[in-house]
Design brief:
The model has no long low-confidence stretch (mean pLDDT 88). The radius of gyration is 15 Å and the shape is flat. The chain is 86% helix and 0% strand. It is mainly alpha-helical. The chain has one domain. The termini are far apart. Helix 1 packs across helix 2.
Length: 50
């Protein structure tokens, strides 16, 4: 498990990781994107309900 954490840390510190982090921050600041993410998380947490 420590190997995965190390790989994530290395990626986060790389130029690609910083770019990805900035994209996520911009998307999180947009109210429409935030609502979209909340809906998606709700579906993932709740599973399919009919």
């Amino acid at each position: 498990m420590a190997g995965i954490v190390e790989r994530i840390k290395r990626f986060a510190g790389s130029p690609q990781g910083r770019r990805a982090t900035e994209q996520v921050r911009r998307a999180a600041a947009d109210p429409r994107r935030r609502a979209q993410a909340q809906r998606m998380l709700g579906r993932l947490r709740g599973g399919r309900r009919r």
